Amino acid sequence: MALLLNLNVSLSSKISQKPCLCLSTPHPPQCSLRRYHAPQALNKNHLEGSPSLIYSLGESISRATLLALLSASLFVVDPALAFKGGGPYGSEVTRGQDLSGKDFSGRTLIRQDFKTSILRQTNFKGAKLLGASFFDADLTGSDLSDADLRGADFSLANVTKANLTNANLEGALATGNTSFKGTNITGADFTDVPLRDDQREYLCKAADGVNPTTGNATRETLLCN
Fold it and tell me: By its UniProt entry, which InterPro entries does this protein fall under (predicted)?
């Protein structure tokens, strides 16, 4: 019995000498005034011998958990902000938008995403649109003259009455029901553009000029007879 008493007194003395987590007010008598300093070593006996230490430690863990959750929340991206633009060079949201009459002339919009957008009377004159997507977009009356459209996707797009004068469309896509009705293609380069026979036949009727960048004649790039 005496041995057990001495052990408890010795243990209590050791705990009281350790700085604990003084989070409550007023501070427990055995706590150091140094805040937020945990004991150097905690074991089962220490915790059993000091209720105030257990309370302080529990409160510290709760606060630490809350701070961790708040910090983590700062790195969670709002899904609505995840799509900043259609491509690595574009800062605007351009997919599925009504951008009629907008001025993108001379802009660098490589791989920009204009899928399903309304682009009537939009100005793309001289713009760099390599790999841009105009899939199912409405480009009626748009100005694409002198634009670099290599590898661009015009699948299912409405390019009616647009201006493709001197545009470079090498390797562009025009599959599906793409319409070039009434479009000015003077000097446009259609090298390696897959076209339906009826599209090619229609474009060949209006094909003329030589592309100033590639030096290729429009009729030759369309494989006109």
Answer: 5peptide_repeat, At2g44920-like
Q: Which helix (H) or strand (E) holds 16?
A: helix 2-17
pLDDT digits (tens, 9 = 90+) for 59-102: 555 565 545 544 444 333 333 333 344 555 556 789 999 999 99
Whole-model pTM? 0.62
Encoded tokens for 220:
């030759």
pLDDT of residue 98: 95
In tens, the pLDDT along 151-172 reads 999 999 999 999 999 999 999 9
List where CATH 2.160.20.80 sits in the chain. 88-225
What's the CATH fold of domain 88-225? Pectate Lyase C-like (2.160.20)
- Give CA–CA dist 49/29, Å, rounded: 15
Burial 116-141 (b: 16+ CB within 10 A, else e): bbbbbebbbbbbbbbbbbbbbbbbbb
Separation CA 54–CA 47 (nearest Å): 6
**First-to-last C-alpha distance (Å) of the chain:** 114
With residue 52 as reference, give the H or E element that holds it: helix 51-73
